[in-house]
Recover the amino acids of this structure.
């Protein structure tokens, strides 16, 4: 037992040594921390699990067990997805809080099963989630099919959510949707696409490649004042026919985004949908790489025409402000709020920065960056996973070393190691170490 605790002490020293060193590249324009709306309203902004209580999952059952820990917000957990995991039924855990879900490099969640059961498609059905982070995930859906409640990620009544560096594609109903008074959401450095042919649904749309719907209905008056969101450094790639995004009610800042969702052979219907009571500020984006059959901005309004938007500094779309006759307030400007922080750069840099395979949009983060928050180029700070130690009632009885594919080794391997401690009470604790 003394040898076990001696080894544990050595591991802690190694961890301190390695977490103070930067290994991975990061775009100098990537804050590596939640900006915009997700950072407002909570002490310290959206922190997720604060990298507490890490666990590596390599199967759907392990992922479900990890999510059960944070159901109801009673605890916090940091979930690392390793390998390619098939999800056969959507992950529905209500009132989850204080959770971070990371995808390790090369990992994915996939659900390619096509059917008409809304519970058997999509991945994260989030109802009442608060202070949750999704980072570096690759979500591979079954392809577009016009049936409700089958999104890759659906946010319902959620608050302070940060979705960062995710590759989200081929959602059935949508790639990423928000509704029912969800609020304070930031989507950053994400790539959206539809690479599978759409499935026709009799009596419904034959081509439902609709990426992101913000607000479910014009009749949801209780959404007024909610759905406030930031889309920054996002890339709508091939196949996204519309809703990139489409907005109702919310104050939404869309900054430094790239639309490459339509081609000559497969034109998109439109890019940004201007919906009922939407308040948009579209800044320094690049529309020049897409082909649309309608317009870059398309209107979806009631007869009252309650909406307004500002377009400024974009490529392929002229600067202008427009206000519907039913709206009498001021134009939305995110920078009028002293709490709101979001750095924006010249639109001529957008395409090259977001399409960079090493540091651009999508699941491009290294293991090193999954344990840091704050970009040195932006003046942020670096934090690491906190130590997991035995309680007074339980002691360490075994230590195992695992690589990111979940294979156990007798000694730490070069690169990222997941250390799993078996406790005397039968529970397990995990820790990370770089060698």
């Amino acid at each position: 037992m003394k040898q076990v605790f001696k080894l544990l002490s050595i591991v802690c020293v190694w961890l301190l040594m390695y977490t103070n060193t930067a290994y991975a590249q990061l775009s100098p324009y990537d804050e590596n921390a939640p900006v915009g709306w997700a950072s407002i309203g909570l002490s310290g902004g959206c922190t997720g699990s604060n990298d507490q209580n890490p666990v590596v999952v390599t199967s759907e059952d392990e992922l479900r067990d990890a999510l059960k820990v944070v159901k109801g917000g009673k605890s916090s957990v940091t979930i690392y997805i390793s390998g390619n995991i098939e999800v056969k039924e959507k992950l529905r855990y209500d009132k989850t809080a204080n959770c971070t879900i990371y995808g390790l490099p090369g990992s994915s969640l996939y659900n390619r099963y096509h059917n008409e059961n809304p519970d058997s498609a999509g991945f994260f059905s989030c109802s009442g989630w608060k202070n949750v982070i999704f980072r570096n995930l690759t979500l591979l859906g079954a392809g577009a099919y016009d049936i409700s409640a089958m999104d890759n990620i659906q946010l319902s009544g959620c608050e302070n959510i940060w979705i960062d560096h995710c590759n989200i594609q081929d959602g059935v109903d949508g790639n990423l949707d928000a509704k029912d008074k969800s609020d304070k959401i930031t989507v950053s450095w994400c790539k959206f696409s539809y690479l599978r042919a759409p499935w026709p649904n009799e009596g419904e749309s034959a081509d439902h490649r609709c990426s992101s719907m913000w607000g479910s209905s014009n009749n949801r008056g209780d959404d007024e004042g909610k759905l406030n969101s930031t889309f920054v450094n996002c890339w709508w790639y091939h196949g996204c026919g519309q809703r990139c995004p489409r907005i109702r009610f919310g104050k939404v800042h869309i900054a430094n985004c790239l639309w490459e969702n339509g081609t000559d052979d497969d034109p998109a219907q439109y890019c940004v949908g201007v919906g009922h009571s939407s308040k948009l500020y579209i800044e320094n984006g690049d529309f020049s790489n897409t082909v649309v059959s309608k317009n870059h901005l398309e209107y979806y309004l009631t007869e009252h025409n309650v909406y307004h938007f500002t377009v400024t500094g974009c490529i392929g779309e002229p600067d202008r402000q427009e206000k519907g006759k039913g709206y009498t307030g001021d134009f939305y400007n995110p920078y009028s709020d002293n709490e709101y922080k979001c750095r924006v750069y010249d639109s001529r840099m957008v395409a090259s920065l977001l399409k960079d395979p090493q540091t651009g949009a999508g699941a491009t983060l290294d293991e090193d960056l999954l344990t840091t928050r704050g970009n040195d180029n932006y003046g942020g700070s670096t934090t690491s996973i906190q130590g997991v130690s035995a309680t007074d009632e339980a002691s360490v009885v075994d230590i195992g070393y695992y690589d990111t594919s979940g294979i156990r080794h007798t000694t730490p391997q070069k690169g990222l190691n997941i250390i799993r401690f078996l406790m005397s009470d039968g529970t397990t604790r995990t820790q990370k170490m770089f060698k």
